[in-house]
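Let us begin with a simple case.
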Amino acid sequence: MDTVAKASKAINYIESNLKNPLSIAEVASHVGMSFWHFQRMFSVTTGQSLGAYIRKRRVQESLLELSRDSWRVVDVAFEYQFESHEVYTRVFKSLFGVPPSRYREIRNRVSYPRLSLSPTTLNLKIGGNLKMTPKIETLESMKFVGMKIGSDELMNEELPIANLWDRFWKDFKRIQNVLPDAYGLYAPTLEADTVTEACYVAAVPVSDFAETPEGCSNVEVESGLYAIFDFKGSTEALTEAQNYIYSEWLPCSDYESREGFDMEIYNKDFQKEGIIRLAIPIDPTN
């Protein structure tokens, strides 16, 4: 099954379960992919995260119930698996510009259609003119201290990574033994050899672990082989670079991805020239 077919199968499953609890692992399992690679595939294919798509479609589908005068907004929120009235209202307003309480006044003037994919639309979303040639290097093991968020936050919060960095920099001075640069670490979490969730860590490298500040975690990254790309662009454009790496470079290379942290490296080149270094854990295919 090709990428478009897998993404379409995932979308069909999501559409059939908008009123039911959904996890990334469940959808990934339905299309026969690992949690880790499914997240990448969905982002590459659709240009948005799985969580964002599910939130938007749940809000769109909730309009029918919302139009019924007998339904309270809080009832609609829970019917479509939002954890609270406040979260539902926030997502609704961010999508349509008005709170759900005003929907009865504007009725059918809002929409967010389900995705419909084809090889043509896929080609528009990935590839383009972006080309990056990586360096293949073995990186030594490193220690980090940072703030971590898991798959629930990544899937359900608005701008989860940007908000995490904001919180992290407010408490950055409490970290001891700090080395230069900042890192965004992204990896799956294994449970009984099964990928069940993912995490993202906003972190700085340290020479050694000391007392860990409240709200922070210690993370060790083992030594290993990495493909290291230099991407010149904004953090908002990182998805384009990641799409190129996973959809174009990796399938045509002599390497395959392995378990471990994808690393975004923000060093002096980022400060001076806007270059973000991306280190992807790999193994030779042979």
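The second case is a distinct protein. As before, the sequence precedes its structure tokens.
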Amino acid sequence: MGANNDKFGFTGDESKEEILRLLLNVNLPRIPKLYKKVLIEVLVNGKKVEDLRTSFKLPKTRLKAIYSDGIKSLKLSIIELSFRLESVDKLEHELKVTKADLQELEKSTEIEKNIPEALLEILSIKIIDTDLSTRVKNICDRSGIYIFREVVRYSKNDFLKLRDCGNLSATEMGAYLKRLGLSWNMNI
């Protein structure tokens, strides 16, 4: 579980009893109040189940059953909380990624405002609609590159790393970029 103790106000100096008391005082819908009281008396206060007969006015067998069921409910609640905390951690991660994506989108939108309309048209040309060789078109298609705006973000070396791309294909693409007035590694 990636949950950080700081989120819950733990310093790391708490005793097991303090942690159990905090846990049992949390609203855990799985554990009825009577069960919580019995668990606190036994787990936190160190009393024996048999000693609780007079204070709870219940038979010993009933108290043992409550204690046993309480432990089972506590375990299930802890597992459930664990899953919830993992979900929160995943959501926090997704939020960070989404914020980063949003910042990147804002940057590219700002950059796009400064790009002349004629250049935007050239960058929007579909690779499939060009007279590039079938081999180069296939390399781009397999790599998810569909327009020249996506191509110019690559360096020639990075383009060469694409599946089935060799020097001839990279040279052909470089020449085509030059013919369109574009180049490798454009910040667009």
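The two ends are 40 Å apart (CA to CA). Residues 1-6 have pLDDT under 50 and may be disordered.
Keep these points in mind for the review questions at the end of the chapter.
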